[in-house]
Structures are given as C-alpha cells and as structure tokens.
Specification:
Layout: H1 16-25, E1 35-39, E2 52-53, E3 63-64, E4 68-71, E5 85-88, E6 93-96, E7 108-111, E8 116-120, E9 126-130, E10 140-141, E11 152-154, H2 162-170, E12 175-179, E13 183-188, E14 193-194, H3 196-202, E15 209-210, H4 213-223, E16 227-230, H5 238-250, E17 255-259, H6 270-277, E18 279-283, E19 287-288, E20 294-298, E21 301-306, H7 310-329, E22 338-343, E23 347-348, E24 354-364, E25 367-372, H8 381-385, E26 388-392, E27 398-399, E28 405-409, H9 413-417, E29 419-424, H10 429-440, E30 445-450, H11 452-461, E31 468-470, H12 482-488, E32 494-508, E33 529-532, H13 537-549, E34 562-563, H14 566-575, E35 580-584, H15 585-590, E36 594-608, H16 609-612, H17 615-624, H18 627-636, E37 639-640, E38 647-650
Parallel strand pairs: 13-16, 13-17, 14-15, 17-21, 19-24, 22-25, 29-30, 33-34, 33-35
Antiparallel strand pairs: 1-12, 2-11, 3-10, 4-6, 4-7, 5-9, 8-9, 18-20, 20-21, 22-28, 23-27, 24-25, 24-26, 26-28, 31-36, 32-35, 32-36, 32-37, 32-38
Helix pairs in contact: 1-7, 4-7, 5-6, 10-17, 10-18
Amino acid sequence: MTEQRQRHIYLETKSLEEARDLFLGAFDLAGRLAEEEVPVEAALGRVTAGPVFALDSSPRAHLAAMDGIALKAERTFGARPDRPAALIEGQDFQAVNTGQVLPEGADAVVMIEQVVAAGQDEQGRARIELEGPAFPWQYVRKLGEDLVATELILPAGSPIGPYELGALVAGGVYNLKVRKKPRVALFPTGSELVSLEQVRERGLGRGELAEFNSLILAGLAEELGCQTVRFPPLPDEFARLKEAVGRAVADGFDLVIVNAGSSAGEADYTAEAIADLGRVLVHGVAIMPGKPTVLGQVGQTPVMGIPGYPVSAVISFEQFAAPLLARLLGRPIWPRPRLQVKPLAALPSKLGLEEFIRVKLGRVGQNVVAVPLHRGAGSITSLTRADGIIRVPALTEGLEAGREAPAELLRPPDEIEGTIVAIGSHDNTLDILGDLLRRRDARFGLTSGHVGSLGGLKALARGQAHLAGSHLLDLETGQYNVSYLRKLLAGISLKLVRLVMREQGFIVAAGNPKGVKGLEDLVRQEVVFINRQAGSGTRVLLDYHLKQAGLDPGRIEGYGQEEYTHMTVAAAVLSGRADVGLGIRAAARALKLDFIPLAEEAYELVIPEEHFRSDKIQALLEVIRGREFRRIVESLGGYGLEESGRVVYEQ
C-alpha cells in the first residue's frame, strides 16, 4: 500500500548547463578515486592513474625488417650490374630473417630477392653478388625506433584499449597503476516492478512490470569503466527508500542512483529522501524527456534521482551521471560526431525545454533525411532504433520540416549511407524486409516512416525517400495506386513494384463479443471503432466502402480516434480501448484476435528511377523475390505473393 504522509514538494526547473554546473561543482572529484596496480592483461577498459613511461626500448636491439642478408653497407658502395659487389658468407654478410637481431657490425639488410647466388669459394662458403649498393640502415628496425626507455607511453587519464595494451608491453610495462573503478549503486523503485530473478521464478502478475532500466543504466556505467550493483526494486515507501540510500552512502559507493520517484506525485519520494539525508541541489531540469531529474548530495556522495521512463532515464544519465563519472576517472568523454540532416516532418517542441528527439537517418540524394521516432519517454524502441539525436534548443518552438539541423550520430556514417528510407503506408512485411536485407548484406538497412500512402507519395515528390509503400484505391476505377502516381508524381520517372496482395478487414476481440459482421455494425451505439490516420490507404478504403454502403462516418463512435499502423490498431482492440478497427489479417493473427474480411488489396512499392538501379534497392528486390521472404510472409497469413517483386507499372 502506498505510504501517505505530508511531504514538502518543490520543482524548480533549471537549464541543463546550470544544473550540470551545480551538480559537478558540488564535489571535489579530481584525484578522489584510489589507485590500484593491475597486470597489463587485466587493464583493458581501465584508466591510467598517472603517466606511464617506457621501462624498456622498443625494439630492444637493431632488428632485420626483411628476410635477406645483413652486412656493412659500405661494403657494397659502387656496386652496379656491370661491376657487382662479390661477397662471402660469414666474412662479408650473414643470412637473417625478419625480426632477427643484426650481427655485430652490420648496419643494413638486403632483401633476398636482390641477392644473386655465385657458387662457393675454395673453403665451401657461399658467394653472392649484389648489382646495386645498399645504404646504411636500410630495412633495419633500429633500437628505440618506436619507443625509447623513459619515453611517455600514456598520460594520466587515458582509457586503455587493445592498442594501448600492445604499446605498454612493447615498452616493458607489465604491471601498471590504474584508477579504481567507481562503484555505482542502482536502486529501481516502484511497487509494480519485479526483478528478473523473480520473473524467472514466478512470471508476471496483472499490473506488474519486469524491471529493466537498471540493466540499461548499469551497461552505460560499465562502458565508462565503472563497477555497478543493481539492487532489487524498492516499493513506493519513503522509509525503505531513505534507508536504502543512506546505507549505500555509508557503504562507500561513489554514486547512488535512484530510478523513478523523482517527480512530484503522491508516491514520488526521491527528492524528499535525499533532502532528509543531505541536500537537494537541483529538482527539475529544462530538458525533455528528463525534466523531473533530482540532483543531490549526501555527505560527499553524489545522489541522483532520475525519471522512471527509459528514454528519460538514459538522457538524465548521459547528461549528469556520465560527466561526473568521467571526472572521477579523470578521463575524457568525447562528443558524438555530428551531421547536418533535414527532418522529414516538422518537429514542434515546448518553448523553454531543450528536447532530445531520436531519429532514423538515411541519405537520399544530396540530403540526409531524419525520420523522427516515437517521442514518448517510455518508448524503449526509440533507443534501439535510433541512428541519431536532434536537439531542439529551449528557446525555440521546434524545427521546420526540411530545414537543416545538426544531429548527433549514434551509428557509423557508412551505416547511414547504406540505409533505404521507406516512407508511406505501414505493412508488417517491411520489418521482415529490413531483417532479411541486413542478413543478406550487412552494408544495407531499411528504415520506414509510417505517414500513410499519401504522405509517402508527397515525400517522394519532395525527394525525401528512396521508396514509398502505397495502397491507394481509386474510388472511381477501383484500381490501386496508378492514378495517384499520375496526379501526384507527374513528371517523375518511377517503377511500381508489387510487394504483396493482402486481406483488409475488421479486427475484433477474440470470440467477437460485440458480434461485428460488417460495415453496418460500425454505426451501432455500443461499438467503439479505432481508425487509421487521414491519408492512409486503409482510411481511403474504409471511406470508399462506407460511401458505397450509404453509411455516415459521423455516426461511428471513435471514427476520430487515429492510429498509424495496423499493429497499433490491433493493440487498441486487444487492450479494450476499441471494439473494432480496420486492418490486415496478419496484425489480427499476430495478437490472436478475430478477423472479418472486407477486401483484398495491392500493397506496392513506388520507387523513383533515380534510386531503382542503386545497389541497395537491387539488393532489396532480390530479397523480395527470394524464397525466404515468401516463406516467412506466408506464415503470417492473409497475404498473396504470386506477383511479389514484379514491376506492375512504369512511368
């Protein structure tokens, strides 16, 4: 039961920079972590505690850099093809292999390919001839060429990677002093949360959630070189939370993070617990997501309360915990590389809040197009799918569509170059295509933005996509797509490729409790409908059939409720938010819902000629025409694949 008590709640928002300066400035972080000595084999990912100097030179002696013969270079001066230098083994030269120490007195190596055998002398020693001179120190790795003893290998605060390990050993450093790993305590809070151990033991009950934020936060901290302890979820109880934080501080953790309970709700106790134990430096930061962040101090220990939604938690960690931990370690955090991009759609934002918007990226022509992902703070998939982050400044109300803005890159630039940008209507087969394309050729990927068929065609007209998924029904001819291409994309050379034929129909709860049989049931008062967005092919199809049946959309309860994909329509029905929605059979089948067929339609890909011949589009077409794609799609149900991959119209 949630603890009821009188609490002092305050939420005074500060700018990101002001909040970060207050938090980092409250602690003397430099040199705070103790040192420890570790063998070089265990130093990967650690940070040097001080400068590391070479104890030995590398190489430790003059070494042959080629297979051949070692000699004194001056012995060959004047040699030419018509007057070669004649040399005797053991007297004038010695055979050597790459990496071998040069014999005493030798200062050059001649490659074996340049040596001409000339028999033996009277003592049986090998004779050779050289038709050109050698110069001193040719093909020789000289003593100390790479490192000289006492030379600096790594300065203090250097993260140690694989290359650094090699340099240390080359310089004779087999043990070194590093900073101890900062210890980070992670306390997830929320009476609805269940640890993974308990989930494995007993599963999840109604209203319970598997706790995963601490996994994300621990991973971020460990990537920086920290040691983390993930504590079991705490219930929404003030006394339990305060006791846990106090214990972690007493145990000497370098940073304590409480995840959730940082806002100002009835069961949000983080700020009060920190205030009772120490002091709150900041409660509320002008960023979105992440506004309810709490930054505090208990003794000399930094304590953070970060929001419970995963995207908010990650942003809060990156903006406050990461720089604090980096300062503790004395290591740098380099800013992410940036790229100028053009948003596919306008990105409105709240004035006064700096917003972090995750986007998918792909180069189309001369521009990199940014497709915004779901902006909800609880959307974990926006973290896994994002290629970059666009930051909208606090003093603006958003960004215009098509206007360049910098994006922080989360993926390598080459991956963005190989991305196919597909904008338009949603279909479940697009995810299958993306997976199979990546498996076929790791250089290529597919990102899709679901803006409806009309939105996709308009994106093509603006040069913002490589292709568009469309299933627009001509209300006069009953033909799909072609008439719209002629109207909206006139003058653009393109190909229309059949992806699938698919069944559209009514998605209803298992057992069809409202007894929906067809269109006429949508106007019944007790039936709640969930619609697709205006401009989508599914919406056009619905309006066409309503008109044919003489039914007024205004009589349909929920006609104005819109979703952007077939799966979210199905999810609305599954959750009970709606009784019925129009969508594809595969979506109903995926969530074990019932389906009443309405029509079969063509779902096709519109591909401008300028992109059609590219390697990535040709690879995509090969996937569409392949056996594996057909096998997987057939297993979904509700699809016809007889003409998949065929060009059905050219313009």
